[in-house]
From TrEMBL, chain A:
PANTHER family with a match to the protein in the record: CYTOCHROME B_B6 PROTEIN-RELATED, HEME EXPORTER PROTEIN C
Membrane-spanning segments: 26-44, 64-83, 95-118, 130-148, 164-184, 204-225
Listed Pfam families: Cytochrom_C_asm
InterPro entries per record: Cyt_c_assembly, Cyt_c_biogenesis_CcmC, Cyt_c_biogenesis_CcsA/CcmC
Record membrane topology: Multi-pass membrane protein
MF annotations from Gene Ontology: heme binding; heme transmembrane transporter activity
Record-given protein name: Unannotated protein
From TrEMBL, chain B:
Keyword Cell membrane attached: yes
Record-level GO BP terms: cytochrome c biosynthetic process; cytochrome complex assembly
Organism: freshwater metagenome
Primary location recorded for the protein, binned into one broad class: membrane
Record membrane topology: Multi-pass membrane protein
Protein name: Heme exporter protein B
Automatic annotation (TrEMBL), chain C:
Alphabetically ordered keywords of this record: Cell inner membrane, Cell membrane, Cytochrome c-type biogenesis, Membrane, Transmembrane, Transmembrane helix, Transport
Keyword Phosphoprotein: no
Signal peptide range: none
Any matching Pfam family: CcmD
Protein's cellular compartments: Cell inner membrane
GO BP terms: cytochrome complex assembly; heme transport
The protein, known as: Unannotated protein
Organism for this UniProt entry: freshwater metagenome
Topological category with respect to the lipid bilayer: Single-pass membrane protein
Gene Ontology cellular component terms for the protein in this record: plasma membrane
Residue runs in coiled coils: none
Classification of source organism: unclassified sequences, metagenomes, ecological metagenomes
Keyword field contains Transmembrane helix: yes
Amino acid sequence: MAVRLRAVNISTETRLSTGTVATRRLGALAIVMLTVLAVLALIISPEDVNQGSTVRIMYVHVPTIWVAYMAFILTAVCSATYLSGRNRSLGWDRVAGASAEIGVLFVALSLLTGSLWGRITWGTYWVWDARLTSTAFLFITYIGYLAVRRLDGTQRQRARRSSVLALLAVLEIPLVHFSVRLWRSLHQEASVATGGTDVELDDLMLFSLFFGLAAFSVLFVWLLLHRQRMLYLEDAMSSQGLDAAIEARRKEAVR
Amino acid sequence: MSPRTSRVNVAVAVAKKDLLVEWNSKILMNQVAPFAAIVMVMFAFALDNDGILQRVAPGLVWLATLFSMLIVVQRSFAVETADGALDALRVAGVDPAAIFAGKSFALMVQLCALETMLVGTAVVLYGVELTLGGLGQMVVTMVAATIGLGCVGTLYGGLAAGVKGRETLLPLLLLPVVAPVLIGATRATEAAFGSGGAEISEGWPWIVLLGIFALVFSTVGSVAFGPLVDE
Amino acid sequence: MEHASFIIGSWVVTALAVGVYAGWIIKRGRDLARRSSDKDFPWT
């Protein structure tokens, strides 16, 4: 009885959102950690011997690409699970879609912060370096993935198409990366990429970096939980709408 | 009839059908090829320098190929979805791998014809010199690149088939995937044309890259095509 | 701090983008939850 009461209490408070007590705590933790990270990165941590103050961009740049990679790997894993599972639960597909969307946001941020860093360090926003170019392709590929998710069709069709596409992307990205590296290795005009990028990390810098990875990981989990629940609600409503339409048609036919 | 021969028969029938449709409509000859040719002329307007044109001719040939391919792929699946032929084949229990092979082959034949025309255009308009050895390498490059392009084009074309907004979706999906082909084929063609003082021997590693791409996507394509077009 | 505008700028842009995205998620999640006829969600 006591348990039941508590459950009612929670649900009256959180019923009308995608949040729960757990996600609120997680969200608060993410805010605290990110604030601490900003203080660590912008004020407390020392300047780098080689890079000077530009290293302060790294504390936000590295975690964004970390989150993006994590998100895309999760998308691939969930897509594979969806395709291989016997009951083919749409839940996997929704996690894959939510994860890819967050990944696209963070890869964009990573490209942006990276190019600001490059402008200071190399004097140019962009170099045709293998890693940069492959990251740009990663970005476009998952924009395409998100576009495919928005195509007309049933939820099952969306899930199957996008799962196959996510697995194809896993195949495509190493191929693109490999060929771009081969391309760059013969055209070494962009040698700026190797100049002045060494970072000598002392303990506080290393701590800040890993703290940043942890903070952004918490943020990622929070975003993923909410986004995935939002997709659940959207899916539920669109199938309700469909059911209602079919019901209306049936009544019309009987009449 | 064993399953294997029936699969080959289906593939041959699908390829024949596609090529016959093209032969009757002459869309490739009357619209796509002139489009590719005008793209080559427009490149000359944009770059406006004989020396530069000669240097970048390989890249332009392959860019024009990719743009034309988008049209051909869309056409190849518009034919299928207009009368629900793809669905009919699926309902009849035809192996999707066989459909994939047939459609890919038909696409490859059309692409080869286009590429031959584009290389010819480069020789005539851009003053590219082609030696006998270069010609041999060009043919190998074309075959390797076309197998990859045909498979990828069919795979992603099938995904976008019969969907609203496919005209704009297909380039977004297809172009990032074929980037390795653009890189590999352009470098190999530079070697074949001798642009920028490239030697013929420099081209072979790139042809290996094209071969890997073709191998990967022909294998994966025949597996993934079924779930993609399955309705 | 040298290059302060670039450094602060990259942090501000990131914070803004993530903030807007998170705000949108919460707001749209609430809207959808309110409009949903079945109020028994798997996570409650």
